[in-house]
From TrEMBL:
Keywords: Metal-binding, Zinc, Zinc-finger. It holds the Pfam family zf-B_box. GO terms for molecular function: zinc ion binding. Residues 74-115 form the B box-type domain. This is B box-type domain-containing protein. SUPFAM superfamilies: B-box zinc-binding domain. The lineage of its organism: Eukaryota, Metazoa, Spiralia, Lophotrochozoa, Mollusca.
Length: 187
């Protein structure tokens, strides 16, 4: 019952992104960013140009992403302002990565933290923004739904009033004809 209700609301099982037929997604190619069924995962492995691709079980995506986040390399971030300089800190005041020259020229008295901590702080901020946007999206969809219901109600009222006007027009036209006929008979 719950599945049928969720399907009515627009949720459709994902199909394999290679064959587009099977709904039994079991694998993900991290390089292609494809969700694959077992048959297509086997075929994907056989293609020579994909021999360096990493294909993981979809049950392990969260674990893999956590491991990837743990291995982020912040040692070679080039400075966007000073050519040849590598960023070494994160300026919390401006929310940007900075190189030694940036620190001495622009960010001298700003609060600095390690790049990894700056990354974590920025990711928290992004997740908060995403959460806020999701909440606003839900609220907007709700308001749009209410507006749709209101518009439908108003459209019905409008049509009803049009029918009343047409009906009244017919009655009045009939009355005018009767009156005209009466006047014409007297002459």
């Amino acid at each position: 019952m719950a599945l049928s209700k969720s399907l009515q609301r627009g949720q459709v099982p994902l199909a394999c992104q290679m064959c587009e037929e099977s709904n039994e997604i079991k694998w993900k190619c991290l390089l292609c960013d494809f969700l694959l069924c077992t048959k297509c995962q086997t075929l994907h492995k056989k293609v020579k140009s994909t021999d360096q691709h990493t294909i993981i079980d979809i049950k392990n995506i969260a674990t893999y992403q956590q491991q990837t986040n743990d291995k982020l390399d912040f040692s070679n971030i080039p400075c966007g302002i000073h050519a040849g300089q590598t960023c070494c800190l994160f300026c919390q005041s401006c929310e940007v990565v900075v190189c030694p020259l940036c620190i001495t020229t622009i960010h001298e008295k700003h609060k600095m933290i390690e790049l990894a901590k700056g990354y974590e702080q920025t990711m928290k901020t992004v997740k908060t923004y995403n959460s806020d946007i999701d909440k606003q999206l839900v609220q907007t969809v709700k308001v749009l739904s209410e507006l749709g219901i209101f518009k439908s109600s108003e459209d019905s009222k409008y049509e009803l009033e049009k029918q009343k006007i047409s009906s009244r027009e017919k009655v009045l036209m009939d009355e005018v004809k009767k009156h005209t006929n009466k006047l014409m008979e007297r002459t």
